[in-house]
Design goal:
single chain; 1899 residues; alpha+beta; seven-stranded antiparallel beta sheet; six-stranded mixed beta sheet; 78 strands; 18% helix
Length: 1899
């Protein structure tokens, strides 16, 4: 009644205001009459004049907020006012949550809520282990984390320009770092490493742009000139394998150069490291990848040739924006009450590091721009993410209204039938904070995309187009903003009216703090339905538009409202004062919202079909995964069924999709059409490949096919979301006291209705459980763990004309009213409430058995857990179990009289959800939340027979963290008439609750697990690293191991300081446990300190939840025989050769894996011929090869008494001939080999194996082959021998990048591991495990949780059925009979003295610590109380230092068991900083059966670089292993050795290589060969640790989980009670060898003529040649050949370059001070490259650069014999030009070309030089000295230069002779002749008159 009165008053008020309005600014809603809108400020004033009417209205409201006031309606209906056709939405990828889960697939949109699958519990919980939906979650990519962006600038090539000084600027975001400046080169070498640290959300980091810019360095007065740059975003790097680009060439372009030609190439490494990332950087071999085009820095699929493109972002208009977004606007509204549009919006588009913005539209919430923002970028772009922000222009600070992220990869396709980026025209919906008028918006960060938007903020109409361009008129580095033509929105989508219906069936679990005031709920979609702060959305932006669209007041419809969006306010009630509920008992309130949007349902339908396919596939694959984990034989059949279902579903999609696309294409954008085609192609492809995969599923290929099926799932998930929005998301808000309290956001895609079942939203027409959460940041952390409210809501979304369908799926049992009966009529609105008459009464039984792995909530590291079971409005609590993380309640909770509304059939098919919450009981204060899970009860209706349910494990969650598991089951029982709850035999109570709360009922028999007898055997070894407890040290600890109430206690350690090991290590207990392993309770390991006066203090605890790892099920002989018979019958694979249970299985088919390409002919190499069956005693054939020179009697360097038997003369001759062929190749002599020879050879072999896809030598691939077999090529597996000169050796030499080293020596190799040794041998935990002890509360903060570790317990557990069967086939870990105990025969745990040798080889990629971007590292070792510091030997300014140190220290186990290796940074002032550290548990290594004390070398040698370093010889080691394993032997025979029942025999002679001779092998070599195959020895065999180097990551506590570099090292352990080993290996870094390079420049020819002669104008050049080796500071120049008219120059000039050179690394070593203020010299390594340049000397200006050539001394073209044969073809790198290595050739003479690069990247010949290059060692140079230039000693002759070669102003006479006379002599002669003649004539005429007179006068 009140509602009707209120609505009538609202109508009356509206009519009066309409009559009194004079302006024409009124508009009508598109479909139904809306309320008028003020067109002027005067209109506002008049409308505010009805204070009396508003007062009457407020009285009628009786204290509650109106659902829809006049202004609110005007604001809310504006979406329906303006005729807004061209709307192309996209429900797709997300808005303010910004993105994906830390992968590259970031959300390109601004709408996707992160609640899909979080906010509502799915209706079918089929799996046993129900994973609870995460209720209040913060996306992982919005939480601030630590990241490092690491960039290594290696070198640049082919830079555009001549003789430049390049420097590289590395910029990530706003941070810039610079390399050093390299002078006078266009191919500089840097090798400089930069690290950028970030602490921010991944979504923010991924937007940052990495820019690599090469600059021309200039002086202080002139800024650096940009030569070229390269840009990509961090997200592109993150999406790469291992998050890195390694040794790739970045193509440099100039953004201002319209030609777009490449400006050079920059070689670099880029990687992004997150916490916990194990970055597997490929092993550095210091070899250059010269194939630039094949190694471009581009993601997969991006072509090498990229073109320029224009990316055009057209911004048409926006509407529905908040009226006031800035602080000043809020202040103005707060003081004046002015509610006009105070927003001045504009749009800013950011892409590839650039930003462009539209013009600002003043004072409008519905701006129209019709502008386009144009970016010019390379295509495909390496920056994929575009940020589109609507901002409010403000005088103080622009504020963000909303943000949308568009990922270009989602709106384009690079396939053969792909398409360029295209989008829209489509509307993009913006989300962010609510529209309140508070001065400070606490949720403002949501508007910028940092979090899930909690309210609709408007929409913007835009489109994106990409045009590939050839000619660009405007400088493309600028962002262009232009006007564009408006569009007809109707062409891109027809406006339709939609209706959203919701019926709230239940509102429970409301927090107590909210329940003080009346509570109501609000439903909104866009601005429609927003009763508190919605505003009009679709208002015209100009008077003309409003006049055109407005209609008279008579056209206004008479209905009261467009929506009913709020429920009636109600005061919450409670039954238990824990949770509150709203009394929606029989009457369920209904809400509906009508709004007008463009009709793009087809997008939603397409996404829904694909989502259903993916969901079904994922469900099927999870079932297969469970069956695989349980080793269920039906997994194969189930996988076939899943693939068959996938094929069927894909076929159905294709038919549906084609049928829909065959219809009208009106309103579809280009992206719509292309996306449909793409989806059809992809799903057709998945369909065909899945059909093929199904046919290939077999028992042995099951896991591979399972992985393939997962790839289909990944592809399908990538197709689900449509980048173009269709409908805005739906919001449900809970309001209390006029404030918004909690909300949930639902994607419209899940609610949309379709007549086709597959197209319908997954939650459409269904009752779903929605958990409300706090808005914004308040939902993160402990504040967001609690549920704010739980709603059971039925929702339906569809077109208004289809609204009759919302009734069909409503839960039955309601009373049909007028609105329901007339739902077909178009004018009838949905009902305001539903009255339910049918309801069922049930009894809920909650069988709460136990929980495990709960989160610690007390300071002791334990919890006092109890459980709450919440069902509907009822709540029950279990008892509290004190001091445990794995409580066993064994309790039955009964909830009587539970009402469930609806019919029986509906309840059976849709059982309501039970919520279980676990809390920690605190004596003081509120109980602390631990975790929550959801479960579906088993329904038993009155007429059903009763069946006992089974207990199931349910995952508990706290926020996003896993909080443990709960073992329970739930029943919803309905009894027959007259029955009560006791009819189904409730068990007898066991005791009372404290305080007489009631009887505690146990879980009934038949439901609780059945028990069996077990024995738990515990090995108590010792305790380590115990911290102080309550400021006191732990000195008398004891360990209690508890399981199911039974406790095994260790002895008390009398003094943990002196000896932290236990005296009596092994104890056991017999007990009863559940037969099913699934139900086994966890094991709790508790350490207590026994203090004086009988006090006990808890030190720490460790919980073992999954006992599978410690459970042992023995195999009897009969079972083993049956299994072997089946295997032999099926012929499936090779057996495991009779190995024990812990031994590694032999390779299938027992074929021999050859020994290791690394040791061609290694002495320890062996091969084994496979066995056909394990039960037959067969011999294993081996071969033992040596490093030998044929013809010699003894083997060189082996130290073995192996003799070469008779070899024929013909074979000797052949071998000698081959040896002579190799005489020209200089190789290291045996005496010159050292440990580094072995190291570099091993690195090279690993690199070759990686490059060619061979078996990697990293040992981490699960095969665990030893180093002798790691890098064997597949081709070699055909032969079971490994011989010198074999195919493998030839292949090795062939693969080597050092092409001149065609023949390699037989170098013994070792294993170079890319990770820790522990990861290769499963942590050395065969029988000794380490359990970390925890104390304190788990907070979820990583740093604090790491501090919870208070120590470690070392020991082991074994749980098995007792008594054991008598005919057991298996043995214990030490080969003994398990009947007498599992841990018998273990070594003693008494203290033992050990000699520890720690070898530190080098460090890689250390984190820079100094301001100059470098570090000064040194090593510090900690072992127990001992500390060794190598501070005085720090290495200056190095991030990749080579230490080459061996540290020797004596230790006593167990006190000194943890070795800590730290790398510190030396500082002149202040304390030294720690770069990183690594910790090694030496004790586990020492006692391991893998014998990790000293690695086994690949061959046995008694001298030389590979000298045997273990104090025990191979025969002694073998004999000891046989004794410990209780095996007979070893028994040595001629060429054979027997160990137990296994015999190893030398390869038969007919298998040997012809001409190799027969060998007599020593026992040591045979023993070593067997040790390398020790895993094949039955029962006790295991893989032994071989000689190795491990690469350990360094970590720093200040940056947990982020690698700070890597350390290459290994550790040797030698017990002091054994014979001591020899001296440690010498691993001192090789000193660089001193060389002198003499380069004689004889002549030049064809040098370009640069100058014009002053007098004559002839072309000429004053030529000189410049050269350097180390750098421009090392430059030497010839004298100048003046006035060369032909390009010929004669010099006879010698350059002398002394340098230090590392042969193995092929680098020149330079030591120098970097600056005047440097404390010491810095060592750097550069490639050995000789630079020669030809110049033209100028006297009054800078010299002119003419050309250059760079000669790599290790590989440069052989010089031409004459100038005519010298051409640019000599510089080809395709292998057609013969190459020379000067370190082997030593001396070479010839002609080489000079060249320059033209702008089109073509090389131009600018001259030729005749040079002689002579390399001498320092000793040779001292014996044969030579002078610089032409000086003494060994002077060179002066060049025979033309007479015309001179400097004109120093030789005036020569200038006259050779310049003037030579060129003008005939002119001069003619002038002289003419002058003489002229003089003669003048004198003649002068003297004739006088002479004539004289003659006449007779004088």
């Amino acid at each position: 009644m009140l509602l009707n009165v209120e609505q009538n008053i609202a109508n009356l008020e509206r009519n009066i205001s309409r009559q009194q309005e004079n302006s024409g600014g009124r508009s009508r809603s598109m479909t139904r009459g809306g309320r008028k809108r003020d067109a002027s400020p005067e209109g506002h004033k008049k409308s505010r004049g009805f204070a009396g009417m508003r007062a009457v209205k407020s009285l009628v409201r009786m204290g509650r907020r109106s659902r829809s006031t006049d202004d609110d309606e005007r604001r809310g209906l504006r979406d329906a006012d303006h005729n807004d056709p061209g709307y192309l939405p996209s429900p797709s990828q997300g808005g303010h949550e910004d993105g994906e889960a830390l992968g590259r697939t970031m959300s390109p949109g601004s709408t996707n809520s992160d609640n899909e699958g979080m906010c509502s519990a799915s209706m079918g919980l089929k799996t046993k282990k129900h994973k609870s939906e995460t209720v209040n979650t913060t996306p992982a990519d919005l939480k601030a984390q630590d990241f490092q962006v690491c960039v290594t600038i290696i070198e640049a090539r082919q830079l555009a320009g001549l003789n430049m000084d390049p420097v590289v600027c590395v910029q990530v975001g706003d941070m810039k770092k610079y390399t050093s400046v390299k002078e006078s080169t266009n191919c500089p070498y840097y090798n400089e490493y930069f690290v950028f640290d970030f602490h921010m959300a991944p979504s923010m980091l991924f937007d940052k742009i990495i820019t690599l810019t090469v600059l021309q360095s200039r002086n202080l007065l002139r800024s650096n000139k940009v030569l070229g740059c390269f840009k990509l975003d961090v997200a592109t790097v993150w999406s790469q394998p291992e998050h890195q680009f390694y040794h790739k060439w970045a193509l440099l372009t100039d953004p201002d150069d319209i030609t777009g030609d490449p400006k050079g190439y920059l070689k670099c490494d880029i990687c992004v490291i997150g916490k916990g990332d194990a970055i597997k950087v490929p092993l550095r071999t210091d070899k250059d990848e010269d194939d630039i085009e094949g190694n471009l820095l581009l993601p997969d699929g991006v072509p090498a040739e990229r073109q320029r493109a224009r990316f055009v972002f057209r911004i048409y208009r926006a509407d529905g924006l908040p009226k006031n977004s800035s602080i000043m606007a809020n202040v103005k509204k707060a003081f004046t009450g002015d509610s006009r549009d105070l927003v001045d919006p504009y749009v800013q588009v950011s892409f590839a590091g650039l930003s462009g913005r539209t013009s600002v539209k003043r004072k409008t919430a519905s701006p129209v721009w019709n502008e386009q923002v144009v970016f010019t970028e390379m295509f495909p772009p390496l920056c994929q993410r575009v940020k589109i922000q609507v901002r409010d222009n403000d005088a103080v600070n622009d504020t963000v209204i909303g943000t949308h992220f568009l990922d270009l990869t989602t709106v384009s396709n690079d396939g053969d039938k792909g398409f360029l980026p295209t989008f829209g025209p489509a509307y993009v919906y913006l989300y962010g904070s609510t529209r309140d008028a508070s001065l400070i918006d606490e949720h403002a960060a949501l508007n910028a995309g940092l979090g899930e938007g909690i309210a609709y903020r408007g929409r913007i109409l835009l489109s994106v187009r990409c045009h590939i361009t050839e000619q660009i008129d405007v400088a493309p580095s600028e962002v262009e903003v232009e006007n564009t033509l408006p569009i007809q929105e109707g062409n891109y989508g027809k406006n339709e009216e939609f209706i959203l219906f919701a019926s709230i069936h239940e509102a429970t679990m409301i927090e107590r703090r909210v329940a003080d005031k009346p509570v109501f709920f609000e439903l909104s979609m866009g601005n429609a339905g927003n009763s508190l702060d919605g505003s009009s959305s679709n208002r015209p932006s100009s008077d003309e538009e409003s006049e055109e669209e407005s209609e008279g007041p008579d056209s206004v419809a008479s209905e009261t409202s467009m929506w009913q969006s709020t429920t009636p306010p109600m005061k919450p009630m409670t039954n238990d004062r824990i949770y509150y509920f709203l009394p929606y008992w029989d009457d369920k309130p209904c809400l509906y919202v009508r709004s007008s949007w463009q009709d793009h349902r087809r997008r939603l339908y397409n996404s829904n079909i694909i989502h259903r396919i993916a969901e079904k596939l994922e469900e099927g694959l999870s079932e297969v995964q469970n069956q695989l984990d349980e080793e269920d034989g039906s997994a194969e059949k189930r996988l076939r069924e899943v693939l068959e279902e996938l094929v069927s579903a894909c076929g159905q999609y294709v038919s549906l999709s084609r049928a829909s696309s065959a219809g009208s294409s009106g309103g579809r954008t280009k992206l719509d059409k292309e996306r449909i085609k793409l989806c059809q192609r992809e799903i057709e492809h998945i369909c065909s490949t899945a059909r093929h995969t199904k046919a290939l599923v077999t028992r042995h290929s099951l896991r591979e096919r399972f992985k393939t099926a997962h790839t289909y799932l990944t592809k399908l998930k990538g197709l689900i979301e449509d980048p173009q929005h269709s409908l805005p998301d739906v919001f449900i808000w809970m309001l209390s006291g006029g404030k918004r309290v909690a909300y949930q956001r639902l994607p419209a895609r899940n609610l949309i209705h379709s007549p086709v079942e597959e197209e319908r939203g997954s939650k459409c027409g269904k009752v779903q459980t929605i958990f409300l959460k706090l808005p914004g940041r308040r939902s993160a952390g402990p504040g967001g763990w609690a549920i704010q409210g739980k709603l059971q809501v039925y929702m339906w979304l569809g077109q208004l004309k289809h609204k009759k369908h919302f009734v069909k799926d409503l839960p039955e049992g309601y009373e049909s009213n007028y609105e329901i009966r007339n739902v077909d009529r178009p004018m009838t609105m949905p009902p305001t409430s539903l009255h339910y008459t049918q309801k069922q009464t049930f009894q809920l039984r909650a069988h709460m058995y136990q929980a495990r792995s709960l989160i610690a909530s007390d300071s002791s590291g334990l919890s006092d857990p109890f459980a709450r079971v919440i069902f509907s409005e009822h709540c029950r609590i279990t008892q509290v179990i004190d001091e445990t993380l794995s409580p066993t309640w064994d309790e039955l909770l009964v909830l009587d009289g539970v009402l469930v509304y609806g019919t029986k059939d509906y309840i059976r098919s849709n059982p309501p959800i039970v919520v279980i919450e676990i809390f920690d009981q605190d004596k003081v204060g509120k109980s602390e939340f631990i975790g929550r899970c959801l479960a579906r009860p088993h329904i038993k209706l009155r007429e059903d027979a009763y069946q006992k349910p089974q207990l199931d494990w349910h995952d508990l969650y706290r926020g996003t963290d896993h909080a443990g598991e709960l073992l329970a089951t739930f029943e919803l029982l309905q009894f027959k008439e007259g029955e009560d709850g006791d009819a189904l035999c409730l068990p007898d109570a066991k005791d009372q609750h404290p305080g007489d709360i009631g009887p505690i009922l146990p879980v009934p028999l038949g439901i609780r697990p059945t028990l069996a007898r077990y024995r738990l055997e515990v090995l108590f070894w010792g305790l380590r690293d115990l911290k102080r407890i309550h400021l006191l040290t732990v000195d008398r600890p004891r360990v209690d191991v508890e399981i199911a109430g039974h406790i095994v206690q260790s002895a008390v350690i009398t003094s943990a300081r002196r000896n932290p090991n236990f005296n009596s290590p092994v104890k056991y207990i017999d007990l009863e446990l559940p037969e099913q392993e699934l139900y086994c309770p966890p094991i709790t390991i508790r350490v207590v300190d026994c203090r004086s006066f009988g006090r006990f203090t808890l030190v720490g605890t460790h919980i073992i939840s999954n006992l599978h790892r410690y459970m042992w099920t023995p195999t009897t002989r009969r079972q083993a025989a049956e299994a072997a018979a089946r295997a032999a019958q099926n012929h499936h694979g090779g057996p495991n050769n009779g190995m024990g249970p812990n031994a590694r299985s032999a390779p299938t088919s027992n074929s021999i894996v050859p020994n290791h390409v690394q040791q061609t002919g290694a002495g320890g190499a062996l091969g084994v011929r496979g066995e056909a069956a394990p039960l037959l005693s067969r011999e294993t054939y081996i071969t033992v090869d040596y490093v030998s020179e044929a013809g010699e009697g003894t083997l060189k360097g082996t130290g073995a008494n192996a003799k070469l038997m008779s070899v024929s003369k013909k074979e000797k001759t052949e071998m000698n001939r081959k040896r002579k062929q190799n005489m020209d190749i200089e190789e290291e002599d045996e005496e010159n080999m050292d440990w580094w020879t072995k190291y570099f050879a091993s690195l090279e072999m690993v690199a070759q194996a990686k490059e060619k896809g061979m078996t990697s030598a990293d040992g981490g691939d699960g095969d665990h082959e030893d180093s002798q077999r790691e890098a064997a090529p597949p081709a070699e597996k055909k032969r079971h021998t490994f011989r010198p000169g074999s195919t493998a050796a030839k292949l090795t030499a062939k693969l080597s990048p050092k092409a001149q080293r065609r023949k390699k020596q037989n170098i013994a190799l070792m294993k170079v591991l890319p990770g820790e040794l522990e990861s290769d041998y499963r942590g050395f935990r065969e029988w000794l495990h380490t359990f970390e002890l925890y104390r304190g509360k788990k907070t979820g903060d990583d740093l604090e949780d790491e501090n919870r570790i208070v120590g470690k317990f070392k020991g082991s557990l074994k749980l098995y059925r007792w008594p054991l069967p008598k005919d057991i086939e298996e043995t214990t870990i030490m080969g003994a009979d398990p009947q007498y105990g599992f841990f018998q025969g273990l070594p003693s745990n008494e203290p033992i003295h050990v000699l520890v040798r720690v070898y530190i080889v080098r460090a890689c990629d250390l984190h820079p610590m100094d301001l100059n971007g470098k570090a000064d590292p040194y090593i510090v070792l900690h072992l127990g109380s001992k500390k060794i510091s190598d501070k005085e030997n720090y290495i200056s300014k190095q991030l990749n230092p080579v230490f080459g140190k061996c540290f020797e220290v004596e230790a006593t186990f167990p006190q000194d068991s943890m070795l800590t290796v730290q790398v510190l940074d030396w500082d002149l002032v202040g304390s030294d900083d720690m770069i990183g550290e690594t910790k090694i548990d030496l004790e586990n290594r020492f006692y391991s059966r893998h014998r990790a004390t000293c690695g086994l070398p690949s061959r046995y040698e008694t001298s030389g670089y590979n000298q045997w370093r273990d104090p025990m010889k191979p025969t002694q080691i073998l004999a000891r292993l046989c004794k410990e394993g209780r095996l007979d032997g070893p028994v040595y025979g001629p060429g054979k050795i027997r160990v137990g029942s296994k015999t190893f025999t030398l390869q038969p002679e007919e298998e040997c290589e012809p001409g190799r001779g027969r060998l007599q092998v020593s026992e040591e070599q045979l023993a070593l060969a067997v040790l390398h195959r020790w895993e094949e020895v039955p029962k006790v065999g295991c893989r032994l640790v071989t000689e190795h180097i491990e690469t350990r990551p360094l970590y720093n506590a200040d940056k947990p989980g982020i690698e700070q570099g890597k350390l290459e090292m290994w550790v040797d352990l030698f017990p002091m009670d054994m014979p001591l080993p020899g001296p440690p290996l010498d691993v001192t870094p090789r000193k660089p060898k001193s060389y002198e390079l003499r380069v004689i420049i004889w002549n030049t020819d064809d040098v370009v003529l640069e100058d014009d002669a002053f007098f004559t104008g002839e072309k000429m050049s004053d030529i000189y040649v410049k050269g350097w080796l180390k750098g421009p500071e090392d430059t030497q120049c010839t004298d100048i050949h003046y006035r060369s008219l032909t390009g010929e120059g004669n010099f006879n000039w010698r350059f002398v370059f002394p340098f230090e050179y590392l042969v193995a690394e092929e680098k020149i070593v330079i030591s120098r001070k970097e600056s005047l203020f440097s404390w010491d010299e810095t060592e750097c390594k550069i490639p050995a490259r000789l630079e020669l340049q030809v110049w033209d000397a100028d006297h009054f200006s800078a010299d002119d650069f003419l050309g250059a050539i760079t000669l790599d001394l290790n590989r440069f073209p052989r010089g031409a014999k004459s100038s005519k044969l010298c051409s640019l073809n000599m510089l080809k790198t395709d292998g057609s030009v013969p190459m020379v290595n000067i370190f082997k050739q030593r001396r070479i003479k010839g002609w080489w070309p000079f060249f320059v690069k033209k702008e089109n990247e073509e090389m131009e010949l600018t001259g030729k030089v005749e040079a002689e290059i002579h390399l001498l060692t320092k000793e040779e140079a001292e014996k044969i000295p030579a002078g610089l230039g032409r000086g003494e000693p060994d002077p060179l002759d002066k060049p025979n230069r033309p007479d015309a070669s001179f400097m004109w102003f120093l030789n005036p006479l020569k200038s006259i002779r050779y310049i003037i006379w030579h060129n003008y002599k005939w002119v001069i002669l003619k002038v002289f002749l003419f002058a003489a003649l002229f003089l003669f004539i003048v004198l003649f005429f002068y003297s004739v008159p006088g002479f004539t007179v004289k003659k006449v006068m007779g004088a």
